[in-house]
Structure formats: structure tokens, C-alpha cells
From TrEMBL:
Tagged with keyword Nucleus: yes
UniProt key word Nucleus: yes
Family, per entry: Belongs to the GINS1/PSF1 family.
Record-linked InterPro entries: GINS_A, GINS_bundle-like_dom_sf, GINS_Psf1, PSF1_C
Signal sequence region: none
Subcellular compartments: Nucleus
GO process terms (BP): DNA strand elongation involved in mitotic DNA replication
Complex formation: Component of the GINS complex.
Annotated DNA replication complex GINS protein PSF1 C-terminal domain residues: 157-199
Chain ranges of the GINS subunit domain: 73-137
Cellular component, GO, one term: GINS complex
Protein name, entry field: DNA replication complex GINS protein PSF1
Keywords: DNA replication, Nucleus
Length: 206
């Protein structure tokens, strides 16, 4: 395997290294390295194809050990490059999924500039799919971002940190939320008010 094809493996390894160097963000999309890796795969495949075709099927089994080793080495390089490229694409996609649940359907300009057009298209399609599913649940829909982890219990004891007024639960029960009043309410109903700072879990104020 010559130096040019070795560079394809190096490019694939560098793609993974970029992800490791930025574990908490999505680094800039490196289309140049992906193209180098992709071109190398095509060239290695063509070289193996030509080698096998020139030998002929009957001769391949009796081919010189060095020729068999060259073919196997090229194939190993192809497999390695493909694994790295797939990992690069899938890991970036997984990080985008995480951002969707953290930030909602709007990406900051800083994040957008690090994405390819294909990644932006995928993110928008993924966001639309989630939004469509949320609006299909019940009469008023369901915001899944408020329930990213299952509640420890059906009800939660909460304390109002300011006057809010009458509040109706999903069960139809009505309560008046006054400052410092304590209530046991369905966990699914209080998440939004907790995020808005109207309620806090009662134990957090002990």
C-alpha cells in the first residue's frame, strides 16, 4: 500500500481524533478529510479488483503469498477507513440529537456554522418529526422536552415561590398556588412551572 493510500487511513483516523478533541461540542465539518478517505477507498477497491481480475479466479488460490498479502492489506485499509467514516458521521448525528433535546428546534449560529448542509437538513427533518409527534398526543399535544426522564413517583410535592393563582391539573383538579403554599401534584403537570420558577420541589427548600 503506497503513501497515497496510507494518507486515506490517516485522514480517517484524524476524523475520529477531531471528535475526541471536542467531546462536548460538534467540531467543524471536515469535508476535505472525508473526501480524501472516500477517494482512497475507491482507489484501493479498484486496485484489488484489477489484481484479482488479472490473476483469474483459478490462479488466485495459488497466487504468490505476497500478492495475497497485498490484497488482504488493501481490504483491511478499506474496512478501517469505512468504519472511521461511519463513526464520524453517526457520532455527529448523535450529538445533534442531544442538542435537539437540549435546545429545541433552533440551533445557534455558532453551531450551524460547524455543520454541513446535509446535517442541517437532517436536523430540520428530525425536529419536524418530533414536533409532529408531540402535537399528535392528546387534545393539546405534549412537550416531550419537559419529560426527558421518567418521574420517580406519580406525584411530586412542590412549594410555590410566588403567587400564581388557580391551576388545573391534567386530572381536572384545581388548586390555588399562593406563595409558600405546598401541594402534591402530578409530576407531569408541574415540570413547566418548575422551569419557569413558579414552583420548586418542596425538599429543595428544606
Amino acid at each position: 500500500m503506497n503513501k497515497k493510500h496510507t494518507s486515506g487511513v490517516d485522514a480517517a483516523h484524524e476524523l475520529i481524533a477531531e471528535l475526541h478533541r471536542s467531546p462536548n461540542m460538534i467540531p467543524p465539518y471536515n469535508g476535505m478529510l472525508l473526501k480524501t478517505a472516500s477517494d482512497s477507498v475507491c482507489e484501493l477497491y479498484d486496485m484489488n479488483y484489477e489484481t484479482i481480475r488479472s490473476l483469474g479466479e483459478s490462479q488466485l488460490t495459488d497466487a504468490d503469498q505476497s500478492v495475497r498479502a497485498i490484497v488482504a492489506t488493501r481490504q483491511h485499509a478499506i474496512n478501517r477507513i469505512l468504519r472511521c467514516c461511519r463513526t464520524y458521521v453517526e457520532e455527529r448525528k448523535n450529538r445533534l440529537k442531544t442538542l435537539r433535546w437540549q435546545l429545541g428546534g433552533i440551533l445557534t449560529p455558532e453551531i450551524k456554522q460547524n455543520l454541513s448542509q446535509e446535517e442541517l437538513n437532517w436536523f430540520n427533518a428530525y425536529s419536524k418529526m418530533i414536533s409532529k409527534y408531540q402535537t399528535s398526543i392528546g387534545e393539546n399535544g405534549l412537550n416531550l422536552m419537559l419529560h426527558t426522564s421518567p418521574p420517580k413517583s406519580i406525584n411530586m410535592t412542590v412549594r410555590a415561590v410566588k403567587d400564581y393563582g388557580e391551576f388545573e391539573t391534567s386530572e381536572g383538579k384545581r388548586v390555588v398556588l399562593k406563595k409558600n403554599s405546598i401541594h402534591s401534584l402530578p409530576s407531569v403537570d408541574v415540570q413547566l412551572l418548575i422551569k419557569r420558577g413558579t414552583l420548586v420541589p418542596a425538599e429543595s427548600m428544606i
